[in-house]
Automatic annotation (TrEMBL):
TM stretches of this protein: 34-54, 66-85, 164-182, 202-220, 232-252, 264-289, 296-316, 322-340
Keywords: Membrane, Sugar transport, Transmembrane, Transmembrane helix, Transport
Gene Ontology CC terms: Golgi membrane
Organism: Cyprinus carpio carpio
Topological category with respect to the lipid bilayer: Multi-pass membrane protein
The organism's place on the tree of life at top rank: Eukaryota
UniProt name for this protein: Solute carrier family 35 member 2
Entries under SUPFAM superfamilies matching the protein: Multidrug resistance efflux transporter EmrE (SSF103481)
Length: 381
């Protein structure tokens, strides 16, 4: 009797504690979502704006091929350091993990050569595109990667899209087309003030970059389904190939000039800031995206377009007219529409999409982050 009474008293107390804990965790998760939104917006907008800024400054310019290589090297070193910290400084265990992941499972490593090649090409093309296009125009046009990713997903992964998503893709294409027509009309005026820039070269570069981004993302998802490798190990594998391929591209394109002037020619504190942003920004987003669902990511992308456009007006003298506003507005609306969950599968599709970068439940990632779904888990008896 006494034990039964004690148990009944404990039950309400435990229920109250669970509710309080769940409420606190929900508040923490809400704050983390807003922080995630801010980080995603800042990373999206700042990288494009900073690249545009350093590429349009007067004087000697750095070699973009060397910047791509440097970013890959920094990314690999960062991931190596994170894994070493996770192993509590145990060098033997760390080396054993690297040997097993890179050498023993060499076939899995080789699978990443293709997306790594495409990502390296994409990173180089981004520099070319941003060097020749206004930052706001690039930001709007680059959203075509959503269209290419969707099409490759349908073709390669047999994924289905909702009617709203198909409509959003049409609006996205229409918005980008309107922006290009508007820019084409003002291209001659811009060419007078930007003699060293080619709008056509920038446009071709961003289109190829969107195609490569869509294919690489879908291919990467396809070959890594069921993979147990952590997000940090995957980045090391990609970074190794990216560094080697980047060095090959650097030698092919700027080898003679870099041999004469040096690998770090033209590097200023601002250039280093761009490289660090490119290297660590992607890793930061991979962590942050754990707390960002599809709607939040879509809103972040849309808001970053607005931030880039407003900043470009003050920083680069970019002119915003009614036609550009209409095109950009269609793109912003389309991005948000595409990120909306599918009817009847909103919960599952959102949770699946939001964890796609970290392969939900990644123990290596969870070691650094609190689990946002912790309160919902029931204790086993």
């Amino acid at each position: 009797m006494i034990m039964a009474a004690a148990a009944s008293n404990e039950s309400p107390n435990r229920s109250t504690e669970d509710k309080t804990s769940a409420r606190r965790q929900n508040e923490v998760n809400k704050k983390l979502k807003y922080i995630s939104l801010a980080i995603l917006v800042i990373q999206n907008a700042s990288l494009i704006l900073s690249i545009r800024y350093v590429r349009t400054l007067p004087g000697d310019h750095f070699y973009t091929t060397s910047a791509v290589v440097m970013a890959e090297v920094l990314k690999v070193l960062t991931c190596v350091l994170i894994i070493l910290i996770q192993k509590r400084g145990n060098v033997k265990s760390f080396v054993s993990l690297l040997y097993d992941s890179l050498v023993v499972q060499y076939l899995d490593t080789l699978k990443l050569a293709v997306p790594s090649l495409i990502y390296t090409l994409q990173n180089n093309l981004q520099y070319v595109a941003i060097s020749n296009l206004p930052a706001a125009t690039f930001q709007v046009t680059y959203q075509l990667k959503i269209l290419t990713t969707a099409l490759f997903s349908v073709l390669m992964l047999r994924k289905s899209l909702s009617k709203i998503q198909w409509i959003s893709l049409v609006l996205l294409f229409a918005g980008v087309a309107i922006v290009q027509v508007e820019q084409e009309g003002g291209k001659q005026k811009e060419a007078v003030t930007s003699a060293n820039q080619s709008y056509f070269k920038g446009l071709v570069s961003v289109i190829i970059s969107c195609l490569s981004s869509g294919f690489a993302g879908v291919y990467f998802e396809k070959i890594l389904k069921g993979s147990s490798a952590s997000v940090w190990m995957r980045n090391i594998q990609l970074g190794i190939f990216g560094t080697l391929l980047g060095l090959l591209g650097m030698w092919w394109n700027d080898g003679a000039a870099i041999a004469e002037k040096g690998f770090l020619f033209g590097y200023t504190p601002m250039v280093w800031g761009v490289i660090f942003n490119q290297a660590f920004g992607g890793l930061l987003v991979a962590v942050v995206v754990k707390y960002a669902d599809n709607i939040l990511k879509g809103f972040a992308t849309s808001f970053s377009i607005i931030v880039s456009t407003i900043t470009s007006v003050y920083l680069f003298g970019f002119h915003v007219d009614l036609i550009f506003t209409l095109g950009a507005g269609l793109v912003i609306g389309a991005v948000y529409m595409y990120s909306l969950p599918k009817p009847n599968t909103s919960t599952s599709s959102t949770s699946t999409s939001s964890s796609s970068h970290s392969k939900g439940g990644d123990p290596e990632l969870d070691a650094f982050l609190p689990n946002p779904k912790a309160p919902g888990k029931k204790k086993r008896n």
